[in-house]
Design a protein that fits this description.
- The chain is mainly beta.
- It has one domain.
- It is built from two helices and five strands.
- The protein has a three-stranded antiparallel sheet, with no helix packed on it. Strands 1-2 form a two-stranded antiparallel sheet.
- A hairpin with a 5-residue loop joins strand 1 and strand 2.
- The N and C termini lie far apart (58 Å).
Length: 69
């Protein structure tokens, strides 16, 4: 008897993936969505590399996001 394919249970659900960053943290990616709480676990600022450029994403005291080059 064959067991059912687990992919059949996920039909119609968004794809879930996880990414591990250089610090060893795992960050969940649901379709193209990352929750900012996962990014700012231990810090209020992260650096994003995009090609040759680096951008700073900061979480303000008012809980807003600021992206600067």
């Amino acid at each position: 008897m064959n067991s059912p394919d687990p992919k059949d249970d996920r039909e119609g659900l968004p794809e879930l993936a996880s990414k591990t960053d250089e610090s060893g943290r795992t960050i969940a990616v649901l379709d193209n969505h990352i929750d900012s709480r996962d990014l700012f676990v231990a810090t209020r600022e992260i650096i994003i590399g995009h090609g040759e450029n680096h951008y700073r994403l900061r979480l303000t005291a008012q809980n807003k996001l600021i992206l600067t080059k």
